[in-house]
Amino acid sequence: MDYDKLKTKVTAVRAEHADWTDQQIADELNAAKVPVLESIPSTELLAWSAAEDRFYNIEVCANGDPKPIRSIAKVALLLISRDGTSLDLNLPDRVAFVDTLVAEGVLTVADKASLYTLATRTVSWAESEGFGVVREGHVQQAKVME
């Protein structure tokens, strides 16, 4: 466990909640409040694409007139329909890929928002930082380091 990082966070929580017990601080660090983006597997993308004519719109673009967006639409179809693939919205090129589909009118802003909703999971600060679960004893140890 990275007690320096934990100490920094415990100190910040104590500054806001000076009257909290070590257990309350641990509970706060374990509370699901931090949104993180996870990869969306192809099975979920396929289900997502079935709504709002998304698959159809991408397919029409992929089979339409030659233009730069056509290749992106073809890749989108492969990503959606090929088993074992995923869309990771943490990667800048994937974000640009989605932004281009929106800019060209293949997908809507609402479609993009729904993709981000699908990719977002709320975790605890402890989980987002790789601690797993912070216990009262961890908080006590971090405080001793002050």
Could you give the order of the helices and strands? Answer: HHEEHHHEHHEHH
Number of strands: 4
Shape: elongated
The main sheet comes to: 2 strands, antiparallel
Mean pLDDT: 94
Rg on CA atoms, Å? 21 Å
- Head-to-tail CA distance between termini: 16 Å
Q: Number of domains in the coordinates?
A: 2
Helix content: 55-70%
> Percent of residues in beta strands?
5-15%
Number of helices: 9
Q: Extract low-pLDDT stretches.
A: none
Record the strand order, biggest sheet.
1-4
Structural class: mainly alpha
What does this structure look like?
This protein is mainly α and 146 residues long. The protein folds into 2 domains: 3-33 and 124-144, no CATH class; 40-122. The protein has helices spanning 3-16, 22-30, 42-50, 54-62, 68-81, 92-103, 109-119, 125-128, 136-144, and strands at 32-37, 40-41, 86-87, 120-124. A two-stranded antiparallel sheet has the order 1-4. A two-stranded antiparallel ribbon has the order 2-3. The protein starts with a helix and ends with a helix. The model has no long low-confidence stretch (mean pLDDT 94).
Summarize the structure.
The chain is mainly α and 146 residues long. 62% of the residues lie in helices and 10% in strands.
Question: Characteristics of this structure?
Answer:
146 residues, mainly alpha, 2 domains, two-stranded antiparallel ribbon, 9 helices, 62% helix
Strands, helices and their partners?
Blueprint: H1 3-16, H2 22-30, E1 32-37, E2 40-41, H3 42-50, H4 54-62, H5 68-81, E3 86-87, H6 92-103, H7 109-119, E4 120-124, H8 125-128, H9 136-144
Antiparallel strand pairs: 1-4, 2-3
Helix pairs in contact: 1-9, 2-9, 4-5
